[in-house]
Design a protein that fits this description.
The protein is mostly beta strands.
Length: about 375
Amino acid sequence: KDQFYTAVESIYSLGVAISDTDSGWGESYTPTADEIKAYFNGYRMYNDVAGYPPYNGTGTKRWGWGWDGTTNAGSTATLPTARADNYTPYRLMYQLAQSVDEPVTYEGSLMLHEGNNQVEVGTGIVVRETAKPMFDGIKYWIASPERDSYWNPCKVSRVVSKFVTIYENGIDGRWIFENIPGGYMASILQPLFDKASAYSTTYVTQETFALGIAPQTISAEYAPNIRESVESLVREVIEARTETSVLQNTKAQKQQPQWIAPVLRNDWVDYGVSTISPSGYMKNEFGWVVFRGMIKLGTMASTTILFVLPPGYRPKTQEQGIALYGGATGAPIQIVIASNGAVSLGYAITSNSWLDLSGITFRAEQ
């Protein structure tokens, strides 16, 4: 068996034994660090000349994720760096020497009934993460981060194991979830998408290690009789009304965001039709900058600057958004928002009859 070790706090070490049959590394072969990573991404090495594992240092290396005794599904001669299709990674479970309290983000609440109740507690759910859907000409999409770079504008922050739901202004939406080779996707048809709405998603991630460890014990309270049940409900209603009142007063005290007209550059001008909003941007109370309006007749070359955002309205790092331009149905174009505030075309366009910036959103610098 081959073994490798990872230092833990420079005092202890953790040893993991892997059989030759599982890894595809022969007794006389020492795998590289990247080949070890490939194993933990679901791939097994084998000898292309012999056609089966293990590889002992001679012949041609190949990797596959579905060895069934005769064939290797997903076979490749290039060392894999991404996770294999339909692969469930290993999970290391351990107990801390000293317990810690961690805040738990959850959806809804639990209802206990009379008699025995069984509650299962796990980790790995991301609750209501802000989403930035991307339009591909037919649908709006939200993507898992392992998708290729084309989907960068609409990726969530962690690798998706399953989408639970997509919210539109806090309400469960009508999205379709697809486990496409290369990573999970969520989509909605263009007529069902509202550019003015705020979108968020709750999903289960494969990166459970980054979100804490499932507790061994949990505690719950229940009312033993109707009177205490009613009193508990009354307390909860009073607390909810108090919190709502405080939030309403706080929100009312904040200055309402105003649309700001940008100084357009490179011959771009407002579309100039009374039924269409003029170009503008605003920052809401949560720190998100939103674009609106249509412009026309400007320079169409790649990297052409449309306008520049002032400090406080710029992203901390470069962001991208998708706009539509020209023609009867419109074509998608990437809009780049740089950290210096420059808003520009991601690549050249073929028509400047109109360019719709509505729906582009990003988080402003903090």
